[in-house]
Amino acid sequence: MNKVSCDICGRSDARAVILVEGAKMVACGNCMRSGKVLYRLDEEIEGDAEPLLTRRGPMEQSEEIVEGYGKKIRAARDKMGLKLAIVAEKINEKESYLDALETQRMVPTFEVAKKLERELGIKLIEKIANEMVSGSSVSKSRFSEPTLGDVLVTPKKKKVK
User: Can you identify the CATH homologous superfamily of domain 64-127?
Assistant: First the structure.
């Protein structure tokens, strides 16, 4: 069985996929508390001996909601001459939820974004390519993949004389 490394600390015993600040990350038992657990990697699919994530391999592309999604939704709805209540009814969502999406108080789920794409003929989900960032010497010697600490940029403090 392949070992999956934690995206946060780099340990090779990742146990779950979690949601941290809108980003999906693979996390070990210690780092699982850093976000909401979406699903556990040690749960097996019926009749399968391998966890779900290890079969898929490394992600090469991921998806995200486009910037300015609220304006896109509103513009498409206005262009079609549809009221918010009608669009909400057609995609089986609450009108207040769609209003929150248009004003960008909330981010749509991928499921809702796909419904809106079909109904309004717009593009709300874009694919982005994941690129590996070259890590520091610590990560290269100790871990096989970069961790958050490797890509974190912190401002340098000014020396006081």
Answer: lambda repressor-like DNA-binding domains (1.10.260.40)
